Hints:
Elements: E1 3-9, H1 23-42, E2 46-51, E3 65-75, E4 79-89, E5 96-108, H2 126-154
Antiparallel strand pairs: 1-3, 2-5, 3-4, 4-5
Amino acid sequence: MTTAEYTAWTQPNDANALGTLFGGKLMQWVDLAAALAASRHARAPVVTASVDYMTFLRPVHIGQLVLLKSTVNRVFKTSMEVGVKVWVEDMRTGETAHVSSAYLTFVAIDVAGKRVALPQAVPETDIEKRRWEHAGERREYRLQLRQRALDREKG
């Protein structure tokens, strides 16, 4: 399965008045880390189609290193699910802790903005097979949510 890693060092302009990372900034980094894995897999430009909810498990402070690891969990015809796990490292102590996780859906597009078929990803390890299976379950739920939103829009 295609993976990518992204790191960012939390700076004062990334933080709120409490000296902790803005949640929106972490969401931006999650989207970027996921896009790296998606783009690497598709070998084409990708756009974010959806983001599952995010829970912030602990604060990230100025001066701490944020490590984001992304993996393409499953590829469908023109979309793919990418999982991102976020860790924080205290640069003074070396201690690390899990901060957040998220699942994002990406679509690859051509120069005309049309969806393109994606190369399949074949799970090989037990972990990859579990992620592949769970991604299919999450996709069904996302499609149901999307349909409900479209139905509400109609009236």
